[in-house]
Design a protein that fits this description.
Number of helices: 8
Distance between the termini: 58 Å
Strand order of the largest sheet: 7-6-8-12-13-14
Largest sheet: 6 strands, mixed
Protein name: Caspase family p20 domain-containing protein
Helix content: 25-40%
Radius of gyration: 23 Å
Number of domains: 2
CATH class of the largest domain: Alpha Beta
Shape: elongated
Strand content: 15-25%
GO molecular function: cysteine-type endopeptidase activity
Organism: Reticulomyxa filosa
GO biological process, one term: proteolysis
CATH architecture of the largest domain: 3-Layer(aba) Sandwich
Structural class: alpha/beta
């Protein structure tokens, strides 16, 4: 009887499991790996149409054939296999893909307010949301990340932030060759889609968005503009109930000055949202895991599903507004090392 060979499979950054192979074939390896994946991962692969890729011990070669498996065991007695997830386009072969590698990320997080009888302080914005988004976009994806340093920000301060951003980064010329803009807004909010500043004044989200549209920022007319907006949008308190999720396609418009926007809202119009940081945590967890291997649409779908399963997840109803003509993939920016 042939002795079984042991190998290790790294499921994520912390979890590793052992598997045993007797035939050393690619099909057996895939079968053994699938048996150690948890149910949620398998469901995610099916819903999001991911293809599993197996990476060898040297972290450079994909394991795709029986010979690859045999050679890996010749190199190491107990090899470590890693997994990556590839976005399958087989369901929509006509989809255009836009890969982002050099985005500018601008975040406003307002966590302290002058009148706490009307507007509560939001400590999780400073303690969790800013940290989550900075870890993801600056440390993992290596994008330029700019955010306000103070917990308080007046309405004029918000306007000054974006004016200074335009000047300091020369956005009207796009001299830094950014291929996308990502704007993150975390604060109290109110009906009419307005961000509430520390002095209790409203800043229109539409006006902020308008400053980045094709008419006002022509240098970015062919670049995706991604907005992540985590604010309250009214006074209605959501109630939890079981529901069947159903997909809905967004209409696409051609030649409009609002083309190219992909906006993610933490909740729908008219509803409050609680200070639990579920949106930033969900985005960080999902994006970190799947980054350059799946589309933004797919990742947000998974973020929405994950939030639904959390305690207090009923406070969130993640909504997407999309006027892009392509699927967006966020890939890490390559680091350039300078020899001294």
């Amino acid at each position: 009887m042939r002795k079984k060979k042991m190998a290790h499979v790294q499921l994520d950054s912390t979890a590793t499991k052992c598997i045993y192979l007797s035939q050393l074939t690619h099909s057996e390896l895939c079968d053994k790996i699938c048996k150690v994946l948890d149910r949620s991962t398998l469901e995610m692969m099916a819903k999001m149409q991911f293809l599993m890729q197996i990476i060898g011990t040297d972290r450079a070669k994909l394991i795709e054939t029986d010979e690859d498996v045999i050679q890996t065991f010749k190199t190491s007695k107990q090899p470590l296999f890693q997994l990556s997830w590839k976005y399958s386009l087989s369901a929509n072969l006509n989809t255009t893909i836009r890969v982002v590698r050099n985005a500018l990320v601008a975040m406003i997080g307002i966590s302290e307010y002058d009148d706490n009888k009307k507007w509560a302080n939001l400590p999780n914005i400073k303690e969790d949301d800013t940290v989550n988004f900075k870890d993801l976009f600056e440390k993992e994806l290596n994008y330029d990340f700019v955010h306000n340093q103070e917990a308080r920000m007046t309405k004029e301060g918000v306007k000054d932030f974006f004016s200074n951003l335009m000047l300091s980064r020369e956005l009207h010329k796009n001299s830094m060759n950014y291929d996308a803009l990502i704007v993150i807004l975390c604060a109290n909010g109110d009906e009419g889609d307005v961000l509430t500043s520390s002095d209790g004044k409203g800043v229109s989200i539409d006006e902020i968005r308008h400053s980045f549209d094709c008419d006002n920022l022509e240098a970015f007319k062919n670049c995706p503009k991604i907005f992540i907006v985590d604010i309250g949008r009214g006074d209605s308190i959501p109630k939890a109930y079981k529901m069947v999720m159903r997909g809905r396609e967004q209409p696409l418009r051609y030649g409009h000055n609002d083309d190219g926007f992909f906006t993610i809202w933490s909740t729908t119009k008219g509803h409050k949202v609680a200070d639990f940081s579920h949106l930033s945590t969900g985005i960080k967890d999902v994006f970190s895991r799947f980054k350059d291997n799946c589309s933004l649409h797919q990742m947000i779908h998974q973020v929405r599903n994950n939030i639904r399963k959390k305690n207090n997840g009923e406070w969130y109803c993640v909504e997407v507004q999309d006027t892009t003509l392509y699927d967006i993939i966020l890939a890490p920016k390559k680091r350039h090392w300078i020899q001294r």
